Fold:
Amino acid sequence: MSFINFLCIYSLSVTLFILLIFLGRMLSFALPMLHRAVFVPSTDDKLKIMLKLAKPRKKDKIIDLGCGDGKIIFALAKQGFNVVGVEINPFLVKKCQKKAKELKLEKSVTIVNNSFWNLNLSKYDLVFLYGTAYIMERLEKKLQKELKPGSRIISNYFQFPQWSVEKKENEVRVYEVTPATLRSEI
Structure:
């Protein structure tokens, strides 16, 4: 084999390897889209509003549905809360786990690589989400079925079709599960 043939084969191999790594990264973002899950981070100003309106209490069990890059869970953990983040995208889960370790918040933050549709949310008192319009009706039914009275939901931008908003600021909405909410026919 000539040196030129070797260089051509080597160059093709390296190019193919780089392409496979790139495609693997792209797939880690594309596969969650098959579930129609898209990552859009909350802005810093929305994060501040969400935390202010949530008024988390030390006894609250807190979850972020679709935690993405972990912005909400890390902000809450830095305030001393234990938080669960649920994320379907394995790349974002790894990124959150790495960041939790870097921030030394592994004991305060749990990141679950799953779809929140597969989880029972009945033990949570405070739910954060930045959903999309097409999931809100179905999610409203799930939360109505699973959450207990007094549970609060903080939604960035998107609203539930049936529930009344308790508070709203700059498109951040607060909902509270009440006995009337649980009885309503959704």
The longest helix spans residues 3-34. The longest strand covers residues 83-87.
